[in-house]
Amino acid sequence: MNASGLKPALPGISRSKRLGFFSFSDRNKPFDSKQRGVCLIKAAMEETQTLKQDVNGMVDKLANRHAGKNHNQLSTIGNSTNIKWHECPVEKIDREKLLKQKGCVIWITGLSGSGKSTVACALSHMLYQRGNLSYILDGDNVRHGLNRDLSFKAEDRAENIRRVGEVAKLFADAGFICIACLISPYRRDRAECRSMLPNRDFVEVFMDVPLQVCENRDPKGLYKLARAGKIKGFTGIDDPYEPPLDAEVIVWSKTKYSGQHKCSQMHCESIHIHLHDLSLRRMQCASFLSFGSLMELINCGTCNLVLPRASRKQ
Length: 314
Ligand SMILES: Nc1ncnc2c1ncn2[C@@H]1O[C@H](COP(=O)(O)OS(=O)(=O)O)[C@@H](OP(=O)(O)O)[C@H]1O
Ligand SMILES: Nc1ncnc2c1ncn2[C@@H]1O[C@H](COP(=O)(O)OP(=O)(O)O)[C@@H](O)[C@H]1O
Known about the structure:
Layout: H1 33-65, E1 75-77, E2 80-83, H2 92-99, E3 104-109, H3 116-130, E4 134-138, H4 139-142, H5 154-174, E5 177-181, H6 187-195, E6 202-207, H7 211-217, H8 222-227, E7 249-253, H9 255-258, H10 265-268, E8 270-277, E9 282-290
Parallel strand pairs: 3-5, 3-6, 4-5, 6-7
Antiparallel strand pairs: 1-2, 7-8, 8-9
Helix pairs in contact: 5-6
The structure holds 3'-phosphate-adenosine-5'-phosphate sulfate (PPS) and adenosine-5'-diphosphate.
Keywords: ATP-binding, Kinase, Nucleotide-binding, Transferase
Pfam families: APS_kinase
Function: Catalyzes the synthesis of activated sulfate.
């Protein structure tokens, strides 16, 4: 069977993934038509599945590209009536070419004191050193301006996450690597942010640090106030935190497994990072890294983060 001379049926789908072309490596065995038939059916099923995934991916992409945009008619979105989406000939892909990077959102979630801002800054610094443009949306900082009207009640937290999700999406559209670090305690709110972006343009990073460790760090003294009842509805104390079930990246401090609460300098310097390969639904690799060699993970394979060697600002 020869695939040469035929154009791919769908753009972006390689010949090898099209139905009807199989290669058999075991050519020396005597021909067993029954076994060969089973082989063919199996291969066809696998190819069909792959093709389906490719087509779904393309449909997703188009759906995401046009989500909420009605190009010819006036629309009503929420309370905004009679609005119309305006296209510009300079698109995301053009800006990405200019910046030589892929616009995406890295969403860091975890308890207060789990190290979200620290990781965000380290990542941003390393990207800067590599010549990549990033921007951090830190929950604490955004609440100083855009979200200053929001409290820590569940509905206000949801609105906080929605707004930051929308802003992050704009940054990604601008071609930035947008690093959002917020407690974002509810799965539903985070899932909504994920759904705003095409598949793989949203990388969820879970700071898997136990409450006890965060509470021992307590850099702002907030846990102490919460335990004393002076702050009500503090995440982890008297307000919920729903850990992600399928984050692409999981980060934890070594202290979680060493059983120490006050960590030594060496432990402070070490974090573990797991890349969660969602396509295989299993942990792909576990890496032990010094804090200085944090992550270099952009536009690589199944998820957008890579764990590189990079020097830390002393
Ligand atoms: N009740 C309560 N619960 C949790 N956190 C509180 C609360 N009150 C104030 N803070 C401070 O607000 C920071 C978290 O803001 P976020 O916007 O990330 O929170 S959320 O995503 O809306 O849940 C958080 O910052 P981080 O410690 O950086 O997470 C706290 O400094
Ligand atoms: N891997 C780590 N080991 C030990 N301490 C850490 C680590 N990462 C961050 N910290 C410290 O924990 C505290 C909280 O970190 P921060 O990044 O502000 O957390 P968050 O943004 O989640 O509230 C800070 O004092 C920071 O220096």
